[in-house]
Amino acid sequence: MKPIFLTAAALLTTLSFAAPISVKAENSAPVRRLLETRECFGCDLTGANLKGAHLIGVDLRNANLKNANLEGANLEGADLTGANLSSANLTDAFVSGTSLNNANLTNVDFTNAHLYNAEVDGAILANIDLTGADVFNTAISVGGEY
Length: 146
Fold this sequence. Notes:
By secondary structure, this protein is α/β, with parallel strands linked by helices. The chain contains two helices and three strands, in the order H-H-E-E-E.
């Protein structure tokens, strides 16, 4: 009986380490709302860990995503109009057909991100990091005109 118990305990321990890391935030109610309803208009997601999240077509208009971790997130078709993304991590993020109009993108890290057909009209683009980013048909340029 003892060997079966030890085998089961070892298996459960291994599975718990192999389980995917869930999306977490200091304020988890808005994160749950976002993931369940695909909208979180005006939500406070400050410092949220949305690493690798599939946020396709979500409504995050006027949301506060300051210092949020969106590394590797898929934001295809998402509406972040008026959102505060200052100091957010969008490393390796997929930002295609995304509205970032009037968003605060100050100090955003877009390292190795894919920005395709993103709308940035009226956005604050101060001190963004585009190292290795793939930018296509988006009004963001380095030292030149769009």
